[in-house]
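Kindly review this protein for my students:
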Amino acid sequence: MPKLPDIARNPLAFIAARWTPSPVAVRRAALAALVMSVVIVITGGAVRVTASGLGCPTWPTCNGDSLLGTREMGIHHTIEISNRMLTYVLCATVGWAIIAVRAQQEPPRRSLYRLAWAQFWVVVLNAVWGGLTVLTKLNPYVVSFHFLLSAALITVAVLTWQRTREGDASPRPLVGKPVRQLGQLLTAAAALLIVIGTLVSGAGPHPGESSGSYTVRRIPVDWRTIAQLHADFAWIVVGLTVALWFVLRAVDAPVGPQHRVRELFLVLMGQGVIGYVQYFTHLPAALVDLHMFGACLVWIGTLRVLLSFRERPPAEPGATVPAAATAPAASRVSA
């Protein structure tokens, strides 16, 4: 039996043996994956608020045996199939991040490599779950979990991007334990805020389908009541953010955590303005989608606050940094 070429047996190792991207290139690849993770949320929100959720009534095909459907299916089909196609773009950016991380050095940074691959598997899981939203005719609980999986993807993408900017030594805290605990409480409150936000969406006036051919189920609660609860939790998150900023100032914490908290506060203020405007204008479609974008930024900002409480040097004290980690091999091309 003929031996398979190296590129067929292990394509990632084949690339890593011939190309070493610069640290900047790796960080950019990780950032591109994070950006696309947010973009897919925005386009998914557009599907919802334009009532295009069943623009492709089947899955994994669009309509019957047709993978893409036809133009005659109308604007809702175009919006829905465009969102599905963007999943492939997301896969490509995540794949590029995996390749860049793997090719950065020999041996690879295994924890960073695992994070990069975790993004891929979350994308796959969310794509399958997205198909389930179609098969269940936009069941609001299924749709809500679809957004939460998107938040999970953003979480892994943020962690990957952060790790590309750090070394591989054990994390070292930059602030005391009480400050870290306050940051963890803020993160938990922000996560709960996002969960309640999905309930508002599931009970609100945008079921995701408006053809009249099918009555989409809604979460059986008054969306205004849930929206008020959502607003209450938003103020809790704002209060914790302000408290954390004052604590960081009081303990003379490094400027990094202080800047991250300030950025989160500004994002929360912008998101709050959007939230109140959309509430008093009865949830117009454009503002709902913009609010989903804001939710992504709030979650990213919260994670960045939590991650700013630590640092990871290139290596443990006294350890020798491998040559591959500091200089590319002579046979490689630096990017």
Observations:
- The radius of gyration is 22 Å.
- Confidence is low (pLDDT under 50) at residues 323-335.
- Residues 88 and 123 are 10 Å apart (CA to CA).
